[in-house]
Specification:
This protein has 4 domains: 441 residues, no CATH class; 122 residues, no CATH class; 117 residues, Galactose-binding domain-like (Jelly Rolls), CATH 2.60.120.260; 75 residues, Sandwich (Immunoglobulin-like). Helix 11 runs antiparallel to helix 27 and helix 17 runs antiparallel to helix 18. The model has no long low-confidence stretch (mean pLDDT 95). It is of the alpha+beta class. Helix content is 46%, strand content 17%. It contains 27 helices and 29 strands.
Length: 846
């Protein structure tokens, strides 16, 4: 793997990083936050650097649950590309080691060359190499061989320690793929029973009991993760059809061709390649008469189940916990690759039993399958003649080797050497093309790209922290990723994560922070000044003046500027009276106004519509409000201009519903206001743009510029004005109710003074893991607007303390301890039983 990556310009401290796809946007950033936590910065349980607040323990369980994660301690966000590179190589190497060790213990007669070939084939299977950026999955691949070894020891020797420890470790490290492995282990055990029914039935109870105790001992992670997902995760996917999308008859052969790579996005065919040698040996397995027929039938049934799951949507969803993946489909398909390795080991221990007929049948099936795939290659646009030529070349070499050893014209030592040489070359070629395909589809970013504006941003964040003792939030107007706040360690709202609080994200979406669909993304950008101040956005980092009322320049670092919002609120907002929810609708600005009025006790109008005039042009077509703009032949931009009459003391916004960029990949918008140009992102944001603040009555010319775009369309645009005097009245009302709030780790402390009984409204996502005390006495936390929290406070001065412990964590610890004690008790009983049997055996016969 290191050599393949090196061939693509990826190595330690290289200019090209390994941070492809999600590794760039998620894994490197989450690892950086984890590293800070290991250094004592932040909390194991909670972080405010994502999604306005996030259960970090749940995120660790999904993204960072690995013993190797502690290596991140030695890396910072700036050097994390090297950290991800190192850990990725360590994990691939460990997969090979655990597989080789396990196979050697289960099949002691296997020659070293065979162990090396099979373990390398499994380590570099296409599922792992084509999705190496999701390095949390690599831990599962390295643990499963040890689990299978432990299961083998449980069945044959009644030893349970290895099975218990490794299965417990798997559930703690990766409960998601652990769920799939649990299903697989159930069927795999049934298959193993076919070797010896009597022994299998005797071990069935022990297998079930140890498996349950393993799950129980994993409760320290399983229970909090389950409760978090059940409260804030996605809804179960529904069965919508019988067959999976894009599946076809010859997929099994198409994805076993050497170097075949289709996509890891939508419409992918299962990544099942693990080498032509394991593929051919698996087919031979089912022809060996030296293996009991019922055993072959049992293994065949398990393989049929796995393959059928690729085609049948209900089975496909069940394997994936009833959640249809957004990308990286068929996430259990690697289990078929693992099965091929196991069956290959079974065959190679019976090498002298293989006959020419069995070899011919196996290679004929593969050859006919590949030939049929070539005939119908129109169904597989990713396949080229190269894939067939190289696959048939390797297949022919293996055929000669098998014929040679079966005819005793080739010594077994030479046979294994040939198999190893060609096999390692084949798997290396395949790995190379998986990495090439991955790079072409997702792009391996440069170090310069990863560190874009890094030192400048870090400098400005440090300045903001130095100037504040109370809690504040900060956001970038032109972010690089949805997780920039985690990357640079500032409290923010934006988020891109499978672990998220869907309730709060939905509420934030209704308030203008876009988070649609399954709430995988949440974005701060393109919202109003009203929400900036309400949610405590004290700072913006931008490349120019953000043109927001009340934002003043505080610091500059090269091309970046730090602007401070003079009217930002505290994390805790004192309400006018005990808080009662208001009704939200689909109109974002109505929701913002209702929430602010409810918090302040005022009844003000904040937003009004402005009239605008479209400048007529030959490149602009207005069809009853639906506007299409085409780029003139000799112009750089696709442009359209409006004139707007703006009253004094107004912050102006433009809404462009249903904005479409046609076939262009550039989705940025540039807006020129009286000659001054601002740039806006539309990446997972609403098409709602800030035009600027106007202190006097003005007639404003607004020109929309769309770079690198031939045609743009949108529904009837609307200009809105925020009434700044009313905005100031509302914000002053809230800030005058003095509440000082600080955050330390997983604890929030608010000092307040009030003349009447009321509430503190926290702009923190509601989560059952929070508990509260007022002046040391435990009080209830109330859910507000579905996504936030309130705490009732009495008249006078006092202190509210919020503490976050993941929901179910304490119970999970107790259950884990119980599971461990029960397992140790089981081992003690088994030990005493063995001693009792030995006494009976040693007693004299009368």
């Amino acid at each position: 793997m290191a050599l393949v990556l090196y061939s693509r310009g990826i190595y330690w401290n290289s200019n090209t990083t390994i941070l492809v796809s999600d590794a760039f946007h998620q894994y490197a950033i989450f690892a950086s936050t984890f590293s800070r936590m290991l250094h004592g910065e932040g909390s194991l349980f909670y972080t405010f650097t994502s999604g306005a607040g996030l259960n970090f323990y749940a995120l660790i369980g999904y993204y960072l649950g690995s013993l190797f994660s502690f290596v991140y301690y030695f890396f910072t966000a700036e050097s994390m590309a090297n950290g991800i590179y190192l850990i990725t190589l360590l994990k691939f190497g460990t997969i090979g080691l655990t597989t080789s060790y396990s196979l050697q213990k289960i099949y002691p007669k296997l020659p070293f060359k065979a162990l090396l070939l099979l373990s390398t084939s499994y380590s570099l299977m296409s599922f792992a190499t084509s999705q190496l950026e999701i390095n949390m999955w690599l831990d599962v691949f390295m643990i499963l061989p040890l689990i299978i070894l432990g299961l083998h020891q449980l069945i044959t020797q009644k030893k349970t320690n290895l099975y218990f420890v490794t299965l417990t470790l798997l559930f703690i490290e990766n409960y998601y793929l652990g769920y799939m492995v649990a299903i697989f282990l159930f069927f795999y055990f049934l298959v193993q029973m076919s070797w010896n029914w009597k022994q299998g039935w005797r071990r069935l109870f022990l297998f079930g009991l140890v498996s349950i105790l393993s799950a129980l001992s994993s409760s320290i992670m399983l229970l909090p993760s389950y409760l978090d997902l059940s409260s804030h995760g996605e809804q179960f996917s529904q069965f919508t059809q019988l067959l999976t999308e894009n599946s076809w008859y010859l997929d099994l052969f198409a994805k076993n061709l050497v170097a075949s790579y289709d996509t890891t996005k939508y419409g992918a065919i299962p990544m099942i390649y693990v080498g032509l040698v394991p593929f051919s040996l698996t087919l031979i397995f089912f022809t060996l008469s030296s293996i009991k027929r019922r055993v072959r039938v049992a293994y065949f049934a398990l393989i049929v189940l796995l393959v059928a799951s690729f085609y049948l949507q209900p089975l496909d969803l069940i394997w994936q916990a009833m959640h249809a993946p957004n990308m990286f489909l068929h996430r259990y398909s690697w289990l078929l690759s693992f099965m091929l390795i196991i069956l290959s080991a079974e065959v190679l221990t019976r090498l002298d039993k293989i006959k020419n007929l069995q070899i011919s049948v196996s290679f004929s099936i593969i050859s006919l399958g590949f030939f049929a795939t070539w005939l119908f290659s129109s169904h597989y646009s990713f396949l080229e003649p190269f894939h067939f030529i190289i696959s048939f070349t390797f297949l022919f070499a293996y055929l000669l080797a098998f014929w040679g050893v079966s005819q005793h014209k080739l010594q077994q030592s030479v046979f294994y050497l040939v198999l190893l040489s060609f096999g390692l070359f084949e798997i290396s070629v395949n790995t190379y093309y998986q990495i090439v395909g991955l790079g072409n589809e997702w792009n391996f970013p440069s170090k310069e790209g990863y560190l874009q504006n890094y030192s400048q941003t870090e400098s400005l964040v440090t300045k903001a922290k130095a100037d504040n003792t109370n809690f504040f939030r900060l956001e970038k107007l032109l972010p690089q990723t949805g997780n920039d706040s985690m990357k640079f360690d500032y409290n923010g709202i934006s988020q891109f994560s499978s672990i998220r609080n869907t309730q709060s994200s939905h509420t934030l979406d209704l308030l203008g922070f876009k988070s649609s669909g399954t709430n995988l993304n949440l974005r701060y950008q393109n919202n109003t000044l009203l929400m900036d101040s309400l949610f405590g956005i004290r700072y913006n980092i931008s490349q120019q003046n953000p043109e927001k009322f009340g934002f003043t320049l505080k610091e500059q670092s090269n091309n970046l500027y730090l602007y401070q919002n003079d009217y930002a609120n505290s994390l805790a907002i004192m309400t006018d009276r005990p808080y009662q929810d208001v009704s939200f609708n689909l109109n974002t600005l109505d929701n913002q106004s209702s929430l602010v009025n409810q918090l302040t006790g005022l009844n003000l109008q904040y937003f009004t519509r402005l009239t605008s005039t479209l400048h007529e042009s030959s490149n602009v077509i207005d069809n009853n409000g639906f506007v299409t703009v085409k780029k003139p032949v000799n112009d750089i931009y696709t442009t359209v201009t409006y004139t707007v009459n703006v009253p004094a003391e107004r912050q102006v916004y433009l809404s462009l519903p249903n904005l479409s960029f046609g076939t262009s990949t550039n989705t940025t918008v540039q807006i020129a206001v009286n000659g001054q140009v601002q740039q806006y992102t539309t990446d997972n944001t609403f098409s709602f743009f800030n035009i600027g603040y106007f202190s006097q009555n003005s007639q404003v010319s607004v020109t929309l510029q769309f770079p690198d775009t031939q045609e743009v369309s949108y529904s009837k645009p609307t200009f809105y004005a925020l009434n700044i005097p009313n905005y100031l009245t509302a914000m002053t009302t809230l800030t005058n109710r003095k509440v000082d709030t600080t955050v330390s780790g997983n604890q929030v402390t608010s000092h307040f003074t009030t003349d009447n009984k009321t509430s503190l409204f926290y702009t923190i996502p509601y989560d059952k893991g929070w508990s509260a005390t007022v002046n040391g006495h435990k009080v209830a936390i109330h859910q507000a607007q579905e996504g936030f929290m309130t705490v009732s406070i009495p008249k006078g001065s006092g202190t509210v303390t919020l503490t976050f412990i993941p929901n179910g964590f304490k119970t999970g610890c107790l259950l884990s301890l119980t599971g461990l004690v029960l397992y140790l008790s089981l081992r003690l009983l088994m030990h005493l039983s063995v001693k009792k049997q030995l006494r009976k055996t040693d007693s004299p016969i009368n």
